[in-house]
Amino acid sequence: MSKKSKNKQSKLDGDTQNGDVNGQSKIGKKEYEAELIKLQVELVKLQEWVKATNARVVIVFEGRDAAGKGGLIKRIVERVSPRIFRVVALPAPTERQKTQLHAQRYIERLPAGGEIVIFDRSWYNRAGVEYVMGFCTEEEHRQFLRDCPIFEGFLISQGIILLKYWLEVSEEEQHKRFLARIEDPSKRWKLSPMDLESHHRWYDYSRARDAMLAATDTVASPWYILPSDDKKRARLSCIEHILRSIPHQEIPYTSPELPPRQKSKGYIEPKQTHRVIAQRW
Prior knowledge:
Layout: H1 3-10, H2 29-53, E1 56-63, H3 69-77, E2 85-88, H4 95-98, H5 104-107, E3 115-120, H6 129-132, H7 138-157, E4 161-168, H8 171-183, H9 193-200, H10 202-216, E5 223-227, H11 231-245
Parallel strand pairs: 1-3, 1-4, 2-3, 4-5
């Protein structure tokens, strides 16, 4: 890891404690929505380039619980095709999968030509929750940190574009978000027993994160740290970075002409009784 990267890592637990990000006030809703739609249009252009060139892209999102991964991914895929942008959020491994190679179930989800796969958590579970919660051994953890750069180097050598993002939320902000999940009935489903444990084990997760970044932030496959206390700024910044990091070109678009409606040829809609939903709003 470069000296610059180490300096960035050493400040992770300090620089994101304030409500503002990099000294900036939170972005307004109107400005945020205007910028977001512009970036989403550019994502559609990226999609067309990926489809036209048969490119393969993998985007990995990692971070603490309540760091904002789900909301960010939702905005990325909001206006693109789910056949091109595929989101992978795997559940806990089955008993059979536990006996497989650790990366095996993730390899099965890698993109074919013309696809972008977004991992909402990934093989890096081994470096985070599995290690902290004791779901893997110390030796398995060491092996993962040793072998992960080799695995990712292989993916890149095969032509896959790999981007890795760590969403960094402050201790104070994570606490506030957990409380909001407890108090808001529409958010309670987001709070799992594992989330509660991650709140308790803040510094265990900090040490695991530090070890992961030190071992897997490489020149070929770097980590990009995304401060996420301000969700709106984080979303805009990340989408812009994705667009800037994938060397794509706009594919020329030729507007089609809508064909005329066919003639009815005597068609009359039958008089049938249907169960029509009442419009209450």
